[in-house]
Amino acid sequence: MRVIAGKYRSRQLRTLRGLDLRPTSDRLRETLFDVLTAGHPDRLNETAWLDVYAGTGAVGIEALSRGARIVHFIDNSRTASNLIRQNLTSLQVPTDSFEVISQDVAIALRRLDSQAIAADFCFLDPPYRKTEEYESCLGFLSQSRLLKPDSIVIAEHDKKFDLAERFGSIVRYRKLDQGDAALSFFRLA
Fold this sequence. Notes:
alpha/beta, Rossmann fold, eight-stranded mixed beta sheet, 27% strand, globular
């Protein structure tokens, strides 16, 4: 697994065998960032991100590589959180440009909301089998202060599992299928 583009381009990222991790593939990450930057190559500069169910941290690290100001990585697994820290350290990412939160997602999101953190982009990728996590997380985001009026929320999911078109005040405006995975893009209605 590698960083696709930007400052850390072609640098390798570590993953763990046997851990219940399903990292977002290089190809799917490339598609995601191509969609986000289409017609706006500098769109990610100085943005704030939430990488929820972060796993290896590959998506958030890709955002940092492409100019994001800060990424809040959230994963309840201490092993995954340590792996994210190792990947960030190996790339020598400045410590003021990330926060790794090893906590239950619901608790972490409530904490960030209470701190008035607002993200330009939120990427979430819970384990595919935990379909209830999508509704819980997207529902909370739709009622929180974590999203700005023009924020984009992206959910990676199994393409055989279709998410609802709407979660509270956020609506899906695009869906892309690639291999066994799909990306659903949401924004505030």
